[in-house]
Amino acid sequence: MSNYHSQEQTIYRNLSGKIQMGFYDNGERFPSVKEIADRFHVSYCPAQRALKLLEKDGQIKLYRGSATAVLKKPYENYLESNIFKRRIKSVLDLCHSLELISPALCTYNIQHFKKASSSLWLKKIAQGQHAGRGLYQQFERSLHLLGNQTVLSLYYDISSFSGSAFLDILYLKYGKEKADSFLQHIASEYADCIRNQHQDTSFVLQEKLEKLCGTFFDAIKDYLRNTECDADSKAQEFFSCEPRKGRTRYCDVVAIDMICRINQDVYPVGTRLPNSHTLADIYHISGITVRRTIALLNKLGVTETVNGVGTFVISRGGPDIPYKLKDLTLDDNMRNFLEALQILAIISVPVMLVSLPHVPRKMLKELFAAASIPDEKKSLVHAVSIGLQSVIRYCPFAAVQEIYKKLTLLLLKGSILRLEETGAEPVTGWTKISASIRKSCAHSDYEQLARAFQSLFQNNFASSKQLLLEIGVEGVEKITGF
Predict the structure, then answer these.
(1) Are residues 310 and 421 in the same domain?
(2) How many separate domains does the chain show?
């Protein structure tokens, strides 16, 4: 059995979910292996293996030289299935999380619609093709416009985990005719947002989308709240995501980040590194990954482990480190770093506004102190770290915490860009942003603090994109800017 977050398993669960939602009930052709590989940005092999898994389960029948036949849905009634019952609480949490981050993503997305894409979207809605599964399909297509594979990957994980629950609940609650009418209304309202995008400010557009998301999720949340009372808490399954399916070596990126900290004297030569438990907590990785990271640092000659005592820093990381870890300089790793910055810039305001009221005063003081460090680069790195930790530890929604954990790890892929920095380098715009952070921390002004972090991520995204374009990283130009 392949890993749950492997490429073939992710493709398998998404295609299985689409079969469950009735995507292919009315004669719609099942996608070919090539189309699946292109859609999920994978090679032929994982796409083919996913189809074989679907055939093994009896959901499809593959025919050489002709179209694939859909045989049956995975569940006769998904809402009565054991897998849904194990996920009820997490699906409710996903509703809250999606209601929080979707308006910001959609606002950004709509503002980057090209006229051709916008016209096609509106034409399909006018033809009444957006009830139910059509709404899902068009939302997925719209995400492709961002040029951000990490967003798509997160969407696929969310879609796989929730299955057909959202549509099934609406059809159960309203009946087919009323549910189709409701979904058509949602699609039409979204079309109006696209049509009037140039007339509305970002604030007005996002307000409309927040109201629309609330309308969509309210009925679903009511059903889940009433049903979760009967769910077995001990047997509940939690949502997890993995943006880098099948390729992630977190020990590499954590090692690079730690070398950066050694070069900046956060961990000076001759001192002992934090213990494994502390490192696991800092980077949100497993104990096994910590051990692999330390083993790698030892092999690179940066640290030395003394049994029973700890791991000591014995030298700084030299300029040859990137060549020793050449996998870290691959273009797709740099794109993932840039994509993580883009997502954080888009969703940071709503996420931080809902998280900051739960953050202890002590952590805000730490953030104030980080923003006060004279060395601007070091100050920025510390402030970003504390800001991300505040969401990971205190956001009331588990799915958002999970997403931020994985985005934090993707940001480490950019550590290679600051390997030789000492922390004394100036940062464009940091003087103004750091002052805003200090002021908002002192007065507990959450709105100002959230906006400061949005500016921080936007500035970093813009400067990082320009740098990656200059050094010739492929695919960066496709990621939409601010």
Answers:
(1) no
(2) 4
460 within some domain: yes
Q: β-strands 69-70, 303-306: how paired?
A: unpaired
99 and 222 inside one domain? yes
Q: Are 464 and 341 in contact (CB under 8 A)?
A: yes
3-class SS of residue 313: strand
Residue with tokens 């004394």: 424
Q: Are 13 and 54 in contact (CB under 8 A)?
A: no
CA distances from 173 to 176, 260, 288 (A): 9, 54, 46
**Domain identity same for 141 and 216:** yes
H-assigned helices in 356-374? 361-371
In degrees to the nearest 10, what's the CA dihedral of 401, 403, 407, 409?
A: 70
Give the distance from CA 174 to its chain's centroid: 32
Q: pLDDT 10s digit of each residue in the chain, 482 long?
A: 456 667 888 888 888 988 888 888 766 788 888 888 888 877 788 889 999 999 999 998 988 878 888 888 898 899 999 999 999 999 999 999 999 999 999 888 888 765 545 555 556 555 555 456 667 776 777 777 778 888 988 988 898 899 889 999 999 999 988 998 898 888 888 878 888 877 878 889 999 999 999 999 998 999 999 887 666 666 789 999 887 665 456 788 888 889 888 988 889 999 999 999 999 888 888 888 899 899 989 988 999 999 989 999 999 877 777 666 655 556 677 888 899 999 999 999 999 999 999 999 999 999 999 999 998 888 998 999 999 999 999 999 999 999 999 999 888 877 766 666 666 667 889 999 999 999 999 999 999 999 999 999 999 999 888 888 887 777 788 888 76
H or E stretch at 88: helix 82-110
Report yes or no on 243 lying in a domain.
Answer: no
Question: What is the helix (H) or strand (E) element at residue 360, kind and residue range?
Answer: none
Cα separation, 95 vs 22, in Å, equals 21
Predicted TM-score of the model (pTM):
0.82
Q: What is the dihedral sign for C-alpha 105, 152, 139, 113?
A: positive
Q: Are residues 276 and 355 in the same domain?
A: no
Do 206 and 92 belong to one domain? yes
The parent domain of residue 262 ranges over 250-323
Phi, psi of 311 (to 5 degrees): -110, 130
CB 292 within 8 A of CB 299: no
Burial label for 55, CB within 10 Å (0-12, 13-18, 19+), is middle
